[in-house]
Amino acid sequence: MIDSIVGNKLIGIKQCTKSIKNGKGTVLYVAKDAEINLTKSLIDLGIEKNVKIIYINTMKELGKMCSIDVKASAVLVLE
């Protein structure tokens, strides 16, 4: 299990989507309990752009991994 996500990162579906479209980002973390209708297009885009996708069990756990006190549905590690 990953304890924390280090390095430059973006948090949130909109920011992650925008950066992946611009060819930035190497690893996408997605919470399994996030709304599928919000994350599906982001996951599909990540697959299309050959971004590695890692699933995390909960949004709370993903937020904690980013050292923030709120839940996170998606996190993108930048190049």
TrEMBL record:
Gene3D superfamilies documented for this protein: 3.30.1330.30
Coiled coil: none
Domain of life: Bacteria
Span of domain Ribosomal protein eL8/eL30/eS12/Gadd45: 11-78
InterPro entries referenced in this protein's UniProt entry, alphabetically: Ribosomal_eL30-like_sf (IPR029064), Ribosomal_eL8/eL30/eS12/Gad45 (IPR004038)
Name under which the protein is recorded: Ribosomal L7Ae/L30e/S12e/Gadd45 family protein
Native source organism of the sequence: Clostridium tertium
